[in-house]
Write a structure and sequence with these properties.
Elements (H helix, E strand, L loop, with lengths): L17 H7 L5 H9 L8 E5 L5 H6 L5 E6 L2 H13 L5 E4 L12 E7 L7 H11 E14 L5 H13 L23 E16 H9 L11 H15 L5 E15 L1
Parallel strand pairs: 1-2, 1-4, 2-3, 4-5
Antiparallel strand pairs: 5-7, 6-7
């Protein structure tokens, strides 16, 4: 995939990082899922579509709340892992390989549509009318994002600097807090329902933080060569020997929930 607004137009492929993604990116804390349940997204009796589902992190962790989930992702490798992880856990979750823009469901199929850590990749002009059409009356479209805060964590900051050393085009760093506002794309299609932001510490070991960083778009999903990734791994592993074995990284969470007009 190539997007002018992402990584200065350099190609990236999440399927290349699927193994590490499956192992190291299921890191959202309980409060992340509790907040969704509190606003009645993904709860019992609902039918929910998760676009850009990756390895099915959101459907798998929300499964206990009782909704019927379908996850779609453009990467066949991501969907392969999603199916395996769900089957291993005894979860009845349906998955399909599809770009978000190519979804094709009957009108008023879903109570909610979710997009976790992926909305920036989509063509809104194509996608938003489709989401509006497949949502039931008063259905919800929920956009979720969680990012580490490098300016409040020396470990996160140093890890970012090492990613940028090997991949200067990466645009995924330097995250800060921001205030959620009603997006202009709501137009006549959606109206705001819930705007939620909060800080959240996430606990890592050296190994899990290394895996989390490797599974980011700047390393594992990037167009870096195997030799470049190996060199990054060696340097990042050496750096992590200088930090405690277990540590917290402060993250910022945003949940933008809009309702179908």
């Amino acid at each position: 995939m190539k997007l002018k607004t992402i990584d200065n137009g350099n190609a990236f492929d999440w399927g290349k990082a699927s193994g590490d993604y499956a192992k190291f990116r299921d890191i959202y804390p309980e409060i992340f899922y509790e907040k969704l349940a509190e606003i009645s997204v993904g709860t019992k009796g609902q039918s929910v579509l998760d676009i850009g589902t990756g390895t099915g992190v959101l459907p798998r962790n929300m499964y206990r709340y009782g909704a019927k989930w379908i996850g779609v992702d453009i990467s066949a490798n991501q969907i392969e892992y999603a199916r395996k992880l769900s089957a291993d856990a005894g979860m009845d979750i349906e998955y399909a390989v599809s770009s978000a823009e190519d979804i094709d469901f009957p009108a008023e199929t879903f109570d909610a549509v979710t997009a976790c850590q992926c909305f920036m990749y989509f063509d809104k002009n194509v996608l938003l009318p489709k989401i509006h059409r497949i949502l039931k009356p008063d259905g919800h479209f929920c956009i979720l994002f969680m990012a580490w805060l490098p300016y409040e964590s020396p470990i996160a900051k140093q890890s970012e600097e090492l990613v940028l050393k090997y991949n200067p085009a990466w645009t995924g760093g330097h995250q800060t807090r921001y205030e959620l506002q009603v997006p202009p794309w709501c137009g006549e299609l959606f109206e705001p329902a819930n705007m939620i932001t909060f800080d959240c510490p996430v606990t890592f070991t050296r190994e899990s933080w290394h895996g989390r960083i490797k599974a980011c778009r700047g390393i594992g999903a990037s167009s870096l060569s195997e030799a470049e990734i190996a060199a990054w791994e060696q340097e990042h592993t050496a750096y992590l020997q200088t930090v405690p074995e277990v540590f917290d990284i402060l993250h910022y969470v945003s949940i933008m929930d809009v309702k179908k007009r």
